[in-house]
Design brief:
Rossmann fold, four-stranded parallel β-sheet, 8 helices, about 15% strand, alpha/beta, globular
Amino acid sequence: MTSDPALLIVGHGTRSTAGAAQFRAFVDRVRARAGGLPVDGGFIELSAPPVADAVARLVAAGHRRLGVVPLTLVSAGHAKGDIPGSLARETQRHPGLTYAYGRPLGPHPALLTMLADRIAAVRGPGPTTVLLVGRGSTDPDANAEVAKLARLLREGRDYTDVEFAFISLAEPGVPAGLERARRLGARAVVVAPYFLFGGVLPDRVAAQARAWAADHPEVTVALAGLLGDTDALADLVLERYREALAGDIRMNCDTCMYRVALPGFEHRLGAPQHPHDHPDDPLHPHPRAHHH
């Protein structure tokens, strides 16, 4: 057994059977690349296995220290509140358990490279505009990270432009983003979903992009693949794990709505955080009608 803390990877969860399976396969990939480091993973809601089960397995194997990486792309409510709340619950269940909490995956140069690779795989010749589509959040800081990533994706690459949109909880939506690109002169657009694995929301991105394209035959619309289960992503998770253990997290709190009274979000300043209740955790029943 290694003396390093075990790695716990925490995802949000999805109603997509394929998406949940991709997460579990990714945890296996990280384990294979971790050089003997104990690795497990679980979800905070919607999908099995729950975080509680993953922690219980690690504790049963003798691990009392964890390095935790949230498998999220932006610093939204799940990474800031829901996952830490779940971890606090696990420290109550397992007295003596400690953990170091890492930051979300993005923005990171590896993610930009992955996005550029997915775009290159579907774009045609000639001028191309990219529409980067994020999940969307009620957290303005998280939405701003997607806008920042769009600009970073534009820098140094031969795209005509990179616009951004969201599929849930924030504007502009996918049709509005495509329409903006069209009005700015785009005749070829690659829609790039900023998602790790399959799920309801990535499927919705694809459906909305295809519907808009059918109504606008003058614009060629291609859909890039998801970031997916790759060695590059696994190595990024391990980088975040090592960063957390070293105490070099560097998370930007200057625009966090829980720390700063942002206009329109003043009621969130200092708000207490609560974990999601996972449906597979019998001690904390959770309504299954949870929607995003």
